[in-house]
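Throughout our pipeline, every protein is held as a single compact record rather than as scattered files. The record that follows is passed on verbatim for readers who wish to inspect the format.
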Amino acid sequence: MDMKTTLTTIVRDGFILVFNEDRLDVVKTAEALMNAGINNMEVTCRIQKPLEKLQRLRAELPQFCAGAASLIDFEGMLHAYNRARTTDPLPSVRQVVDAGAAYLVSAANFSEETFRAFHGRLPIIPGCAGATEILDQFSKGANLCKIFPAKELGGPAFVKAVDPALHRMISLVPTGGTNAGNIGDYIDAGVLVVGGSFSMIEKPVFKRIVDEQDYALLSERLHEIKQLIDAKRAEKWPDLDFASADLETISKVTSRNFNL
């Protein structure tokens, strides 16, 4: 899957699920997402054996867009972490790409080396905490900019404050504390894509999903999130059909530049 196809999938979905749960099967979770109308998710490197999970997704669901997240793009920290955890080391950016990652996500900025190696090959979504970081990462080639931790940075109010100063040009992906109660506010502020983890599902329901390995119920809850995002985006951009629009059309209508 090429870069533009992957980025189109993410933007059409309007949602990036953070897969951070070792008690769930990664392939069955991806299938639940697809049944809910969502065709991507990020596999966080905070779980056990993320490379194996990425490889399984590439082998069993080659049409699914599986990204890699929680990447540490600082060589010194990566080496220090892995010296202390030799049995399950944190993979490098290069390793997750080789394992089949379709896009890259981090809680922090990506290095110039990563942009030189992968810009134009697959979408790059760095974590940013302020206007300067957003502009810096976009100027280096970021396709979307993750706002993390979104809740602690101010939630929808932060996006409403920073977006006009950026001339509403860069597509921001709030992640951390997103839920059914604030998704509409984020989209009203101009957000096209929302990031969120399983914490968006009510705790008793999610416990049942895990305990019973009920992927049909998981798909139902994910479909509810997808429907909410679709409805709110339709209110914000009534003349835009995200399900079929290409990136050029989405860019023209929303004024967002995807750095292609």
Notes: Residues 3-254 form a domain with the TIM Barrel fold (CATH 3.20.20.70).
